[in-house]
Amino acid sequence: MTLEPGPGPSTPESAPEALLPGTERALLRRLAEAQANGRAPSVAAAVVRDGRTVWTGSRGRVDGLPPTPGTQYRIGSITKSFVGVLVMRLRDEGLLGLDDPLDEHVPGTPVGDRTIGRLLSHAGGLAAEPPGEWWERTPGKDWPELAAGLGPDEARFPAGREFHYTNLGFGLLGQVVAGLRGKPWNEALREEILLPLEMARTTHRPAAPHATGYAVHPWADVLLEEPEHDARAMAPAGQLWSTAADLARWVAFVGGDTGGVLAPDTLAEMRAPQTVEDAGAWTSGYGLGLQLRRDRGMRLAGHTGSMPGFRATVWTDPDEGAGAVVLANATSAVPVAAVAADLVHLVAEREPRLPEWTPLADADPALVELTGAWYWGPAPYTLRLLRDGWLSLVPAALDASAGRFRPGPDGTWTGLDGYHTGETLKIVRRPDGTVSHLDLNTFVLTRAPYDPSAPIPGGLDERGWAGRAGA
C-alpha cells in the first residue's frame, strides 16, 4: 500500500478568480526578460492555480506570428514524467513491482539486474547516454539495434550508490511498458493518459502549428536550425511535443488533479524524494519519474526538458496549488526552469491564498470524544479531528514529530507523516466500551500522564507522582 503525504489544497468548484492586472504584468515582464536576455526566437508560458489555467503569455515569433497556447514545442525530458506514470499504472495493476529486476520484463540486456524503481529515480547507476553517436541529434535506432549495442560498460556505478541521470534508463523503461502492454509505449501513452486528460496537442511527432528548434550564435544575433528526428527506442527519454495549454493540464495533474488516470496515493509516491541530485546543497532531487526542487520555501515537483533547439519546464507546488509551464525554441541560454519557478513565486507572493475555515457538516460523535489532550508518558499531545475522519496528533514539544492518520476499514488508522508514516494507531477500549488508551505501534498514549489505569509498558512506581527527596 502506498501512503499519501497529504491532500493538497482543495480544488474549488467554481472558476478561479482572475489575476490582478499588476500580477499579469509582472508575469509577462518576467517572461519578456527571459526571451530578450536569452535571445530565444520565441517563448510561451502558462500559470495554473487550483487546477485551472489563470494566465498565458508569449514573446517572440513562430513563423512570423506570436506563439499561442496551442503552439507546439518539443518538451524533451518532460517525456520522462509521462513514462513514469505509465510504469506506476502497471505497478498499481500488479503487472510489475518496483523491486523487479529489469531482466524480468526486458530480458537479455547487460544491465538486467537493475530494478524498475532504481531506473525511475536515476539511481540504477547506468550511463547517461546510450552507446553510439549523440542520440539527440542523429536518427534513432529501433530496440533490437540499440539492445545489440549495449555492453557491461553501461553499468557505470553500483545500483543505489548515487544519483546519476540516465536517458538510457528511460529508453529501457519504455521497453518495459511496450512489453507489458503489447503495443508501442507512445500508443499506451495516448490511450491511457493523453486521451483521458484531453491533451490532444501532445504528440509523438510534431503537428502544426509548431515551433522550429534553433541554436543561437553565442556572439551574433543569428540562428542555426537544429535537426529533428524520431528517436525511436530512445524516444521515452525525450521525444514528445506539446503546448502550453496541454502542459497546463499536466501541471494540474502533477499537483494532484489526476482525472482518474492515477491513484492520488500513487502520484504522491512519485513526488516523494528517492534520491538527492545535489548532495551538497540538498535542494534538488528525484522521485519516481519526477524531478523535485526546493526553491525559496516551496517544494516544487515536475520536470525540465531540453532537446536540440528546445528547452521546457513544468513545475508545480501542490501545497500552494500553483504551477507554471515555460517553453522556448532555443538550444541554450534561456533559463526556463528558473523562469517557471519565478512565475509560481510571483503568483504566490502577489496573490497569496486566502484561508477560510468551514465547520464539519457531519462528524462522528465517537471521534469528537477522542479529541483533546493525550500524553505519551509525561509528554503532552493534542488529538484533533480532521475532515474525512482523519486524525491529527500534534506534540506540544517543537522537536517532536507530528502526524496525520487516515482511517482504515478495520477501525484502525494509518500514519501518513514523518516518524509515524505507515504505522498503525489503534483505539483501545475497556469492556464497557469506554476508551482506555491509544496504541501507536506499541507507544501507549493516555488521558493523563502515565495514567495508572492504563497498561503502561514497564509498569509504574507504586508511589506515583510524589516528590522524591534528593532526586
Automatic annotation (TrEMBL):
The keyword Magnesium does not apply. It comes from Actinomadura yumaensis. The keyword Magnesium does not apply. One of its GO terms (molecular function) is hydrolase activity. Residues 30-348 form the Beta-lactamase-related domain. Residues 364-447 form the DUF7586 domain. Pfam families: Beta-lactamase, DUF7586. This is Serine hydrolase. Keywords: Hydrolase.
